[in-house]
Amino acid sequence: xxLKQLNAxxxxxxxxxxxxxxxxxxxxxxxLRYRGQKYWxxxxxxxxxxxxxxxxxxxxxxxxxxxxxxxxFTGDRSxxxxxxxxxEYGLANQPHSIDKNDGLKLFDVYIGAAVRCAPPENKxxxxxxxxxHPYLVQEMQLLTQMKVIVALGLIAYNAVKKxxxxxxxxxxxxxxxxxHGQQVKLGDGRFVLCSxxxxxxxTFTGKLTQxxxxxxxxxxxxxxxxxx
Length: 228
Hints:
This protein is an alpha/beta fold. It is built from 8 helices and 6 strands. It is 37% helix and 11% strand. Strand 5 and strand 6 form a beta hairpin. It starts with a helix and ends with a helix.
């Protein structure tokens, strides 16, 4: 399987009845500001450079963000933060992520998520995480040049740890507790880098500031340049 085939498989997933119903309900009853727009209302494939050295893992699409636009971290404020920061570090060709046809290109970066459908209240159920987890595992395996995994939030970090532990090499690996800026050096020369998620809950309260987020990608770029 290649990334194109995996993305087609993800986009046609109907494993979780609650998420299927919710993503369609949101599309049928959008907020006024999005009335008249055709929603994607399907699971979101990964997006970016297939030869990426930096793999970004989020939680799940936003109901009126990726679920509307059809591209991960696109059409919401979390996506605005992420895209602007990627652009500042030469990892994207433009500082905005509005629509999947807006011309955005990522350089040396690929973006995925722990769950691929928008969940009610942004809270997937354990069974929904479990159904989606193989997609994360396969995506990680197909990104053969990946050197740094940027986990956006504790939930993404936990999903990444679970995926890594499927490899016998990491089955007993002692991962540190999540913390913004936490670096985890894996035994194979790769790194996991933790960041607070750029959600409004974090950015509006000042828990995550722009300089803090910029530092994450400054570090990620530096880590890709280390010689093994």
